[in-house]
From TrEMBL:
PANTHER family for this protein: CATION EFFLUX SYSTEM (ACRB_ACRD_ACRF FAMILY), PTHR32063
Keyword Nucleotide-binding belongs to the record: no
Keyword Lipid metabolism included in the entry's annotation: no
GO CC, alphabetical: plasma membrane
Keywords per UniProt: Coiled coil, Membrane, Transmembrane, Transmembrane helix
Name of the molecule in the record: Multidrug efflux pump subunit AcrB
InterPro entries xrefs: AcrB_DN_DC_subdom, Acrflvin-R
Biological source species: Mongoliibacter ruber
Length: 1015
């Protein structure tokens, strides 16, 4: 007894299984994690080293090289990319995909900890982070007020922060845009000099009093008591009354040489919403959470908080990713419903009852598919849902073939039960074989290496799980339902739709096939010409790995002249905002001066603090179409092209793994001057291309710094240590953090010792700064050191320990990065470079290499051999294999033609479409070839068997193709460029393949017929 026999004869058991599958699938659908985009978890670990006052060259020698050498010894390193600036180095360590992310993080931490004693002692901090996809904020709320104090705004923001932190599914609730309050100790250095108190004594007194060291515990009798010491400041008065000197019996208190008060730290990050002063509250979501249920928890909190605000503060929930996800999933859900209606319409030739049997297979297959998808830990996101919608047109294939064959047996006079069992048994092996080939076609996408593979993995898994489920359903539940629900036919020719379709087939297809069989050479030559013509279209449509986002959001980066102050940067950014205020297409714009906008898009991290940089996050109406967004982007690009005070870049968000820019050219070499000259030449070449936009060269401009050159011999003679000079200068210019003060309600404030703000910011004032020696004698800084101007590069980059400079560029709208590279690469190759200097492409070109490198080729080769093995197992002859595979080029004709007609480039998602198309084509071809073989084994002549099989299998093949096209049509019309190219390729390929393969496959069978004895 086979599976179908068991299902039909034990219908009670089958019915229970039917209900169980439906219930489990529904529960899975309701409980699965939901997210907007796939959450890739890259084995990437940025190491940020802060070493204030250190030049890039010194940072490179003292910090970066030791760390890189140590980390490079670890196993499975893919690349180490380092960016070195003044006082900051970010070393980005990337391991090969497939390693254990947590284990590698611990390895990096262990190596850095073992190295700390070899690094400079006065490094401020070393932070090792793990790139986490859940760090992307799902919520951004702005508290807006033009007249509330910073203290009032921060108090309200902290209250909201406290409430949001109680939501179990949220994490990293952070505030940005308001300076922290601190306890400021403004030292009067001239008073300290007058008292002849060494500066390190003053600082040591403050620091020692700010420390709270637990006293431990002691036992008295049968009880244990904690010992509390009296350390830690309890009030500002205690700080003011700190004893800093007790020489010669005279006590000197801190308040005699300093002013102590609460003050705000120097502004480093200014935020506004729609031009009005704002404080931003951001929140991210924990991994595995359902964004819809998370929103249901925080939405009431935000609403209630908004209603409790004072009149002078307004709350704007201007970014809520849950709303975007809901909108996108609703759109795809509507596409899904439309697809089901179209599928139902295409099944009309089978009759209402047969159509309903097939339609029942859809929810059951999807229910099983969702269970499988959940088992692979894949969330419901835009790509996994696309996979489910794509599978909609495929998962009915098996059921259509089974039901159509049962209907044919019923028309031949068999009973319902007998027809269900025998008809299904007749095609069980071909159905399993076709499913296997389809799964194998999508299999390489599951094992794609690197970030691109991780990003799209949910799509092929959704297809594989659904199609595999559909095969199980079609061989068990469908025969059971058919045996109970279908009717025996009075008319052996079927219903009116089927009879009409048969007449059309007899009048057209049958005649065309006979002509083709009489002229096989001409038929194949015609098909070959069509295929050759379609290949010409590939270079015309171009290639772009991942498309731009369709969301009505984008960024404006304002790049001021190097070393512009925050105050001046704010003034310039205000001019840009004034222009945006007038634009009716913009709903919100969030301004960040001195820093990037908190991360709200999965592949665009926040830009670190940089006074000469501002970023404006633009939001249009949520329903705005991509065409309108592109129009606005072009309008703003033209508007700001001649902006005199800054370079303004209007940048759209890109899909796929993060890249530094669409075009990025790295020039490698050791000498910075030589690299700078070469970078100018690369910049010139890119500038000459009409397609290049926003060209950036890191070494284009050198920065100017003040260099304090200490006369160490003279300083030692006068009893002054180099560290004392460094400490005094830092205290006067930036301040030193000495500890923490906790007030009566538990709020912590940094204790910062500095000089009165602005006193030593001028060059002449800095020269007159006094430094105390060990005896407390004040010595002018100009006697100990000279102050000179020094130029140096803004950034030094390393790639796998090698120095490089990068020149990056975006592209004009409608221009692909590969088109620009095709123009500039020959010129780059012609550049004369010194020995040891060379260039490499990164950006999109590097992503393409990562996506389609050696690992991908290996997976493809394995897949091809599996493909061949399954077909050989099915047909037991290489001739049958060749006949089946001959249909693959026929789908390429329609796929590339429809891409060209719709204006879409070849892309990663389109390649997925072509790979899936190959599996679908082979699936349909197997059914035709297998049926022809069956007829020949029954004694039917070759020519007659070919013609009969072609006519009899034409209906199920056409129906399966039409249902697939109907299911894919809403996706093809979807404005999301991450989705539509896949559907366009499949629809175009199915049209050309369905038409041509019904002719080419019989012709190939006639030319190379398998021997009957091998079948």
């Amino acid at each position: 007894m086979n599976l179908t026999d068991f299902s039909v004869k034990n219908y009670q058991f089958t019915l229970v299984m039917f209900v169980m599958v439906a219930v489990i699938g529904l529960v899975t659908l309701l409980t699965m994690p939901r997210a907007e985009d796939p959450q890739i978890n890259p084995p990437t670990y940025p190491i940020a080293v802060v070493y204030p006052g250190t030049s890039p060259q010194d940072m490179e020698e003292l910090v970066v090289k030791p760390i890189e050498n140590k980390i490079y010894e670890l196993e499975n390193i893919d690349k180490i990319v380092t960016a070195i600036e003044d006082g900051l180095a970010v070393i980005r360590v990337e391991f090969k995909y497939g390693v254990d992310v947590d284990d590698k993080y611990q390895e990096v931490v262990r190596e850095i900890n073992s190295l700390r004693n070899e690094l400079p002692e006065d490094i401020f901090s070393i932070e090792i982070r793990k790139v986490d996809p859940s760090d992307v904020n799902i919520l951004q709320v702005a508290l807006v007020s033009e007249n509330a104090s910073y203290r009032q705004l921060k108090k309200q923001a902290e209250d909201l922060q406290d409430q949001l932190e109680k939501v179990v599914d949220l994490k990293k609730v952070k505030i940005s845009g308001v300076p922290d309050e601190e306890v400021r100790i403004d030292l009067k250095l001239e008073r300290i000099a007058a008292f002849q108190i060494p500066l390190n004594v003053v600082l040591g007194s403050i620091q020692s009093e700010a420390v709270n060291i637990p006293g431990g515990s002691l036992t008295a009798g049968n009880k244990t008591f904690n010992v509390k010491t009296s350390g830690k400041f309890l009030s500002l008065e205690e700080i003011e009354n700190t004893v800093i000197s007790n020489a010669n019996g005279k006590i000197i208190l801190l308040k005699e040489v300093a002013e102590v008060d609460f003050k705000y730290e120097e502004e480093k990050h200014i935020t506004r919403l729609n031009g009005k002063r704002a404080v931003l509250v951001n929140a991210a979501q924990k991994v595995g959470s359902n964004i819809a249920s998370t929103q249901a928890k925080y939405e009431p909190i935000v609403t209630a908080f908004e209603n409790s605000l004072p009149e002078n503060i307004k709350l704007y929930k201007h970014f809520d990713q849950a709303e975007n996800v809901s909108r996108r999933l609703s759109g795809l859900g509507l596409d899904f419903l439309i697809a089901i209606v179209l599928v139902l319409f295409t099944l009309s030739p089978l009759g209402i009852r047969a159509s309903l049997v097939v339609m029942l297979a859809i929810p059951l297959s999807l229910a099983l598919g969702l269970v499988g998808l959940n088992a692979f830990d894949i969330s419901l996101n835009q790509l996994s849902i696309v996979g489910l919608v794509v599978s909609l047109g495929l998962l009915v294939d098996d059921s259509i073939v089974v039901v159509e064959n049962i209907e044919r047996w019923l028309r031949d006079g068999f009973s319902r039960k007998e027809a269900a069992i025998k008809a299904t048994k007749q095609i069980t092996l071909p159905v399993i074989a076709t499913t296997a080939t389809l799964i194998i076609a999508f299999l390489p996408l599951v094992f794609l290496p690197g970030g691109p593979g991780e990003f799209v993995r949910g799509l092929p898994l959704a297809v594989i799980c659904s199609v595999l489920a559909s095969t199980v359903v079609s061989l068990t539940i469908v025969p059971f339902i058919a045996s109970r629900f279908l009717r025996e036919h009075e008319n052996p020719e079927g219903n009116i739709f089927l009879r009409a379709l048969k007449k059309v087939i007899g009048a057209t297809y049958a005649k065309v096939m006979k002509v083709a069989l009489r002229n096989p050479a001409k038929t194949l030559a015609f098909s070959f010409l069509l295929f050759g013509g379609s290949m010409v279209l590939f270079p015309i449509i171009g290639f772009k790995l991942f498309p731009t986002s369709e969301k009505p959001i984008f960024l404006i980066n304002v790049k001021m002249p190097l070393q512009t102050s925050l105050h001046e940067g704010n003034r310039i950014t205000r001019m840009v905002e004034d222009s945006l205020q007038q634009n009716q297409l913009i709903k919100y714009f969030t301004t960040n001066v001195g820093k990037g906008n908190p991360q709200i898009y999965y592949n665009v991290p926040q830009q670190e603090e940089k006074f000469d940089f501002a970023q404006i996050y633009i939001q249009m109406d949520p329903e705005a179409k991509p065409v309108l967004k592109n129009k606005l982007i072009n309008q703003l690009r033209n508007q700001f092209a001649a902006f005199p005070y800054a370079k303004i870049e209007v940048q759209d968000f890109e899909q796929g793994p993060p890249i530094e820019a669409p075009i990025s050219i790295r020039v490698f070499g050791e000498n910075l001057d030589s690299l700078r000259k070469l970078s100018f030449e690369v910049e010139r070449i890119l500038s000459a291309s009409d397609g290049a936009l926003y060209i950036n060269n890191e070494l284009n401009t050198l920065k100017t710094d003040l260099k304090i050159n200490i006369n160490k011999e003279k300083a030692r003679t006068l009893g002054v240590f180099t560290a004392d000079i460094d400490r005094t200068v830092r205290l006067a210019v930036a301040g030193l953090t000495m500890g923490t003060y906790t007030n009566e309600i538990g709020d912590d404030f940094d204790i910062v010792v500095t000089s009165p703000k602005g006193k030593y910011r001028a060059l002449d004032a800095l020269e007159n700064l006094y430094v105390n020696n060990a005896q407390g004698t004040a010595i002018p800084l100009k006697q100990l050191a000279s102050i000179d101007f020094e130029t140096s590069p803004t950034t030094i980059n390393h790639f796998n320990k090698n120095r490089f400079v990068k020149v990056t560029s975006s592209t004009q709208k409608g221009i692909l990065a590969n088109d620009v590279l095709a123009e500039v690469v020959p010129q780059l190759d012609a550049m004369e470079m010194p020995s040891g200097y060379f260039y490499k492409l990164s950006g999109e070109a590097e992503s393409e290499d990562d996506a389609f490198g050696g690992g991908f080729i290996t997976v493809i080769l394995i897949t091809v051999f599996l493909f061949v093995a399954v077909l050989i197992l099915q047909f037991k002859t290489f001739k049958g294999l060749l006949i089946v595979l001959s249909v693959i080029p026929l789908g390429v004709i329609g796929g590339v033609s429809l891409l060209w007609l719709t204006g879409n480039p070849m892309s990663f998602i389109a390649i997925i479409g072509f790979i899936g198309l190959a599996g679908i084509e082979v699936k349909n071809s197997i059914l035709l070839v297998d049926f022809t073989n069956q007829l020949r084994k029954e004694g039917v002549a070759l020519q007659t068997a070919i013609e009969q099989a072609g006519e009899l299998r034409f209906l199920p093949v056409v129906l399966t193709s039409l249902t697939a096209i109907g299911g894919l049509l809403p996706l093809a019309l979807n404005p999301n460029p991450q989705i539509s190219p896949l559907a366009i390729v499949l629809i175009g390929g199915l049209i050309s393949s369905t038409i041509l393969s019904r002719i080419v496959t019989p012709v190939m069978y006639k030319l190379i017929p398998p021997k009957i004895e091998t079948l």
